[in-house]
Amino acid sequence: MTEQQAQFKAMTEGTAGDWQIIAGHMRPFMNALPGRIIEHLKLLDGDYGGYPVDRLQHCLQTATRAHRDGRDEEYVVCALLHDIGDTLGPSNHADVAATLLEPYVSEENHWIVKHHGIFQGYYFFHYVGLDQHGRDAFVDHPHYQACIDFCHLYDQNSFDVDYESEPLEFFVPMVERLMSTPKKSLYQKALVDSDAA
Ligand SMILES: [Fe+2]
Ligand SMILES: [Fe+2]
Q1: What is the pTM of this model?
Q2: 17 C-alpha to ligand 1 centroid (Å)
Q3: Ligand nearest to the CA of 119
């Protein structure tokens, strides 16, 4: 049996029936997001970029440290995904992760992920010709200290080859719980309506 598909060639020709078909795909597509995220995270496996541990191990170590320090699930998932943008966004990797996480997390956790790049620079920017104190521009921001804490407690120290991190499988259920339904989205009402249909 072939899958039912909308019939328009341009959206100007779209009908209620077409959009009913498309809306019916929303929930399964949303439900599959955690799987796509995990698959993308695996692209960091074996990618060292000169660092002592590869990018996937760095993410696992960051998330494991946050988890063992008693951080909640949302925070741990942010820690796990904070460098997922390294592959597609090497010039703005923090923005990529922040954008992926934004519909699912608090404003504070989103801010931490979005700004962790410049805050992490405190530990090395002066070695590569950049301003180590770039984070100072945010000193009056309410989440300034939270971002310092993330980088200091979990991120800058997660290059330890001897640290025993939890495996990726340990975090998969957390990603599934957090990222199967957005808290805020342009398409939120359409998703709720398609669930109810
Ligand atoms: Fe980063
Ligand atoms: Fe990192």
Answers
A1: 0.95
A2: 44
A3: 1
